[in-house]
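Minutes, structural biology subgroup

Action item carried over from last meeting: produce the C-alpha cell record for HMCN2_1 protein (Fopius arisanus). EB confirmed the sequence was re-checked against the source entry. Recorded below for completeness.
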Amino acid sequence: MYKFPEDLELEELPGNIYQELLDELDVDNNWINLGEYVAKQLELGSRWVRSLEGRGIIRGRVSPADNLLCQLSIRMCTVGNLGELLEDCGLFRALSILRETESLVITRHPNFPCQQVKVSLGRKIQLICEATGLPPPSYAWYHGDSILNNAGAKELNLEITREDQEGEYKCLVSQVDIEGRILEELISESVYVTVNPTPIVIERQPLRFVEIRKGKSLVLSCKVKSHPEPIYQWFRDNTKLEMQTSNVLEIENFNANDEGKYYCYMKNPVSEVCTERCNVI
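Output recorded by EB:
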C-alpha cells in the first residue's frame, strides 16, 4: 500500500519526500540502475542515460537523480508508476519512501536444510539467510557472539582454514528506515559448523636423553597439531603414569625409581601416535 495516491504526479510529492528519493537514488549511483531500466523499456538508448549526468543540461537540474525524476515527470510518471519501476530494479530502500512499512519475516534460516554442517579444512561453505520486508532487510552475521567483518549480505561465504572457525553461526536481520532508525530486528535460527578431525602431527618431540639429579624435577614435553586436541598419556617403560595426561610431563623429587624410557601416547578420532622415547637417568 502506498503512502500517497498512486495517481499522484511526482512533482506533487511533498518536498521532503522528493528530496529523500533524490538522496536515495544518488547513493551508490542507484539512479543509473533506474535510468538504464527506463531507457530499455522506452527504447531511449544509452545516450539518454549519459545525458542525465550533465549538470543543468535538463531543465537546470543539479544532479543525475533529479534530472531522471524530471524526465519521468515529463513522461507523466505517477507515484504508482515509479513504485513499479523501483520494485522492478530492486531499489527497495527508495521504494520504502513511497510505500507503507511491511513487517520483517525470515523466510529461510541458515540451518536449512540441516542444523549441522561438517567441513574439512581448506574447503568452502555457503550459509544463507533470507528475509522479506519493507524497508528491505539488512544482514549481519555472527560466529558465536562475535560479529563477522565484511559479512553484510544474505549469503555468508566461508573458507575454512582454521579449527577455531568451528562453532555456531547465526544472522541478525534488521529493518532500517531511510533515516537510519531501526524498525525491527530478528535473529535467525543457528547452524553449527563442525570442522572434520585431522590426523595428529608431532611438531616437537621430547628430548632423546635427559640426565637429572636426585631430588630435582623432571619435565618433558611434546607439541602436536591436531583437531580436535588429542588425548595424552605418558608412559615409562610401557607402564602408564597416572595423572600424566597433558602434553607436559612433570615429576617432582626425581629418584632412581623414576629412571627409564619415557614417551607420550596420543589419540584423536582419526589417528593415534607415540612420541620418540626419552631415556632419563
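Discussion: The two ends are 87 Å apart (CA to CA).
Next step: EB to file the record with the rest of the batch.
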